[in-house]
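User: For my dataset I need records formatted as: sequence, then C-alpha cells, nothing else. Please produce one.
Assistant:
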Amino acid sequence: MAPLRLGLAGAGRMGRNHLRGLAGSTQVKVTGIAEPVESTRRSLPSTGAAVYADLDAMLDSASIDAVLVCVPSDLHLSTVRRLVDVGMPTLCEKPVGVTTSEAEQAAALVAAAGLPFQVGFWRRFVPMLKDLRDRITDGKLGDIYAVANFQWDGEPPNANFRTHSGGIFVDMGVHEFDQTRWLVGQEFGQITSLASGVAEESWPGDPESAHAMAELSGGTTALVSLGRRFPLGDVCKVEVFGTKGAEECKFLWPPTADDTFFGALRLQAESFARHVRGAPLEGAGARDAAAALAAAERAAAQIKSQS
C-alpha cells in the first residue's frame, strides 16, 4: 500500500521533530509543508516535499491525504476549523488549543464532520509505557495507590514559544494529565498546585517549575512535577505504586531519549494512517485533549491565584 501523504502545517520546532521522526517511515510521507515564516522555510531540511507560504496554498496545490498540525497552540482551533471545512483528516499536535473550550469546540467540529482526528499525545506509543499500562490493566501491580509523573526539560523555551503556549501546565503538563488518565483509566478530581519561586528568568504566568497533586476518580492519587531546567537534557519518567508492587519507568532518559521520542512520533503517525484508512483510533482523540486541558487549566488557575 502506498504511504499516506501528509501535509505538515507549521515547520517550527515540533514540525521539524515530526519531519525527523517520519523520515524513515514506509507508511507515511510528508509531501507538502505550509510555513508562513520565510526564514523558517529557507532553513528547512531537504525532504522532497513541496513548500508553501500558507495553509490554503498547500490545500489548494499539494497532493495530500491528511494534515499534521504543528502550528502554535493558540492557532490549533482555527487550523482545525479550516481543515474540517475542506474535509481533511487531521493529526493535531497537543494540546488542541490553549483552553478546554477550544479543545471542546474542536471535538465538536470533527465529530459533526465524521472525520478521522487524532491528537499528538505521543507517550501512548512508547513501548515501555504501553507495557506498563498493560501490567496495570492486568492487575500485576494490584490496586494503584499513586502515580507520580515527572517531565523536566533541558532548558526553557524561547520567548516566542512562551507567548503562544498557554503556560507550563498547558504546554508541558497536558502530557502528564493525559498519561495519567491513559495509564490508570481514572479521571481527575480535586487538584492542588504550586509554582516554585526560584527562577533564572521571570516570565509572568509561566514559572520555570510547577507541581500538582490530584485525587483521581478511582481512589488513586497523582503527582505531576514539571521543570524547565535539567542537567541531562529533556527527561520524563513515571512511578507507579500499587498493593502488589511498584515500578519506576524512565521512558525518556539519556542515552536513549532521542530514539524513544522520534520512534514514538513515527508509530503515532503510522497509527493515524491506519485510522484514516478505516482502522479504530489507537491514540488520543479530541475528547482526551479536552479532559487533559481541563485538568491543566485547574492546576494553572491555582498558580495564578498565588501570584
